[in-house]
Specification:
Blueprint: E1 5-6, H1 15-23, H2 32-46, E2 55-59, H3 66-72, E3 76-81, H4 84-89, H5 113-119, E4 120-124, E5 137-143, H6 152-162, E6 166-179, H7 197-209, E7 229-230, E8 241-244, E9 247-257, H8 270-281
Parallel strand pairs: 2-3, 2-5, 3-4, 5-6, 7-8
Antiparallel strand pairs: 1-9, 6-9, 8-9
Helix pairs in contact: 1-2
């Protein structure tokens, strides 16, 4: 099965890639954004998540085709994005990347209309403050959204908090920006950040510490188009690697399979932490 890995040319030249492109009503092309959609769909499909009765939660969905695609498989979907006022102030509405309506998520006709309206709901969600009632989903996903949360640290914390939305044995799939050219310097804060190898490996170690299953393959690919770096203004294709400032970036996909034991990844408050320490060293006070 797929593992956490970088976008490469070879993956885009498979029969499965063509089939997924047909399902989302796109012609196959060498573009990393299209790869992200296919990668997320294939990862969830392989793990039995795209089936009637499964519940999925999408973060920062914009106008991507995945909510409609997953609903067409019988999944119950909660599609979420930021508040419209925040989207307007940050420019997402100007670029046509914010969902103006729920129906816009099925503008390609990927899902039969009645099925879509029955299976898909929309909710405003701040990815830096995920509501605690969003729990018990079979799977969650985000496509190139978490690098816009303000910093690398905030992106890492989002991934951990999003695992609280997944029930034991569930799956989370995220794609984001990966710095191919440096493991030291990067863009670590601002509107778009670039995750380095060290940031990804640190995140994977934390996830494994909680008992989650995460594979990792950081092979950048050896195809001709894997060596090509797109420069601004970016092309429609090939667009696998691109220059962002003085760094070269591509997309990375992360597949996280949740532990079957119940753990909480929410940052622990100061009072809760003090109480936990007190109960550990002064058990006689634990009942107070």
């Amino acid at each position: 099965m797929l593992t956490s890995r970088l976008c490469t040319q070879a993956q885009m030249q498979s029969k499965e890639y063509e089939e997924w492109c047909a399902r989302i009503r796109e012609e196959p092309r060498l573009h990393r954004k299209q790869w992200e959609f296919v990668y997320i769909a294939q990862a969830l499909f392989e793990r039995g998540m795209l089936a009637p009765g499964k519940r999925g939660l999408g973060f920062g969905v914009g106008q991507e085709p995945l909510a409609a695609l997953f609903a067409s498989y019988g999944c119950e979907i909660v599609a979420s994005d930021q508040d419209p006022r925040d989207a307007k102030s940050s420019g997402w509405t100007d670029t046509g990347q914010y969902p103006e309506s729920l129906a816009g998520l099925n503008s390609r006709g990927i899902c039969e209309h009645d099925t879509f309206t029955r299976q898909v709901t929309f909710r405003v969600v701040d990815m830096n403050r995920i509501p605690q009632d969003l729990m018990g989903f079979d799977f969650v996903w985000s496509s190139c959204a978490l690098e816009h949360l303000g910093s690398i640290r905030k992106g890492q914390e989002f991934i951990l908090r999003a695992m609280d939305c997944v029930g034991p044995g569930g799956v989370a799939v995220h794609t984001t920006e990966y710095n191919v050219s440096s493991n030291t310097g990067t863009v670590d804060s601002g509107p778009t950040v670039l995750f380095r190898r060290q940031d990804i490996e640190a995140l994977v170690n934390r996830l494994r510490h909680f008992g989650h299953r995460v594979g990792l393959d950081l092979d950048p690919g050896d195809g001709e188009m894997d060596q090509y770096v797109d420069l601004p203004p970016y092309k429609a294709a090939p667009h696998l690697k691109l220059a962002i400032g003085r760094y070269v970036s591509t997309s990375i996909g992360l597949i996280l399979e949740r532990s079957h034991t119940q753990v909480c990844h929410q940052p622990e408050g100061v009072l809760a932490r003090l109480k936990r320490v007190r109960n550990r060293f002064l058990p006689s006070l634990a009942q107070e």
